[in-house]
Amino acid sequence: MKKIFTVALMLLVGNAMVAQNCSANDSTIMGPGSGNDVFYSLKKAYTSGNGTVKTVSNTNWHLAFSVLGSQFPSNPAVGVAIRVNSPLGENPQAGTTGCVLKVIPGANFSNWHNLDTTGLYALPELVDNDSTWNLSAFTSGYKVSDPFNFIWGNYNMTTHTLTGSKVYVLYNKSQNWYKKVHINSLVYDTIWNFTVSNIDNSDSNFVSINKNSHKNRNFIYYDVLNNTLNDREPDNRDWDLLWTKYKGLVPLGPVKVPYTVTGVLHNLGVTVAQNNGKKCNEVWLGSKTAQPSSIISTIGYDWKTFTGTAYAITDTFVYFVYAKDTNTYKMTMISYTGGAQSKTVISFGATSGIDSKQLSSVNVYPNPVNGVLNVDIDKVVTSIQVYDMFGKAVAFSTDSPSIELSDLNAGVYLLIVTTNEGTFQQKIIKE
Questions:
Q1: At 358, is the pLDDT very low, low, confident or very high (cuts 50, 70, 90)?
Q2: Cβ within 8 Å of residue 338, ≥6 positions away
């Protein structure tokens, strides 16, 4: 049986309508101790109500090798990054440490078998940069002005091979394991070759990774204790945001220091504008003051603050996510609970231009409209929303069959109908 929904386009009730648009409509769950990574798609959230693309343990890897191609000359470092799972094993309450990476001064592969680790604990820790995927622990200190010096090795423009020049030690002091690591080479931006062994040269493994075997991924992950490669990521075209644990730069007095946090990073190709000072029912795409940023921790961790007993949310952080599907979504955090779930409740909404599944048997009338707008559809409808061309939500579905639109300004609006089988969008003209 067909149902008829009436969309009221009345600016009189704008405040109530926007408040409804900012209500909780999805969540992510990282599990006990934030022990899982959650890859999230706003397009999937919008079309299905559940944006989680993949939930995967973040405890089964130590090193992550980029399987992207290096982009010369604009971004050569993107294909040579090697990231470290620094938070792995860390538990401040239990007094345990995470994974630590350090480079041994003066060491290279020629003295690999007689590595001198004197003063290891006093050496500076190398951590991943939380502003870009490209600047990793292994490429710490990379400079655009010296584009072929990737810190762990140098690029030969004749052979097109990056040859490693340093020896690293990766260890977890609390768990009493120590591994030395040498990146042998990256051949023609295609084949990773590296060696991992215990300090005493036992349990030695030579590993090769062919980037071409891992299409549409950002990284492939390696477990140094079990000598296993893990393909953990979903297709990099299918997710926008990543809920994860990482080392972020946290203010400590006048300086910032690396500290393990739980937060949100965004995918390559995604940008985020963080609008501060207004709640989500007070700011829209057309009125935001923030500019899109490619810094992957733009959302980050600071939208929540631990009060000693629970987490408080900064409700004046509103994010406009320019997503992988080329559309823009507004998102804000509603609540966060740690403990057994590590659950984040969010509010999201489309601002404009949603790439919707075109549903059959939909009749929107009359259009142009001057009085009442009806949606006749043979589906289970979960929401009907109307946006102006600035991305501001100006209407929501109602069971009233006859609502006058005479007070609405003339112009073009976007109607979005969300159902159990997809979404429908259509432009509406108010005369």
A1: low
A2: 34, 262, 306, 311
Tell me: pLDDT of 14 over 60.
no
Percent of the chain predicted with pLDDT > 90? 64
How many CB atoms are located within 10 Å of the residue 427 CB? 11
DSSP β-ladder status, 393-398 and 411-419:
unpaired
Give per-residue pLDDT as tens, 189-218: 999 999 999 999 999 999 999 999 999 999
> Which residue(s) pair with 392 in the sheet?
none
φ, ψ of residue 15 to 5 degrees: the values are -65, -45
Mean pLDDT within 232-238: 98
Cα 92 to Cα 98: distance, rounded to the nearest angstrom? 10
Q: Could you tell me where the beta strands, DSSP code E, fall in 134-188?
A: 153-156, 161-164, 168-172, 177-187
DSSP 293-332: B--TTSSBSTTEEE-SSSEEE-TTEEEEEE-TTS-EEEEE
Amino acid (1-letter code) at residue 133? W
In the chain, where the domains are located = 3-18+356-430, 19-50+237-352, 63-230
Residue 375, pLDDT > 70, answer yes
Nearest Cα to 346, choosing from 264, 273, 254, 423? 264
The sign one gets for the Cα dihedral 394, 397, 400, 401 is: positive
Residues 6 or more apart from 238 whose CB is under 8 A from it? 39, 41, 44, 53, 324
Q: What is the pTM of this model?
A: 0.81
Mean pLDDT of 277-301: 91
Which helix (H) or strand (E) segment holds residue 37: the answer is: strand 36-40
**288 — phi, psi (to 5°)?**
-65, 150
CATH number for the domain whose boundaries are 3-18+356-430: 2.60.40.3080
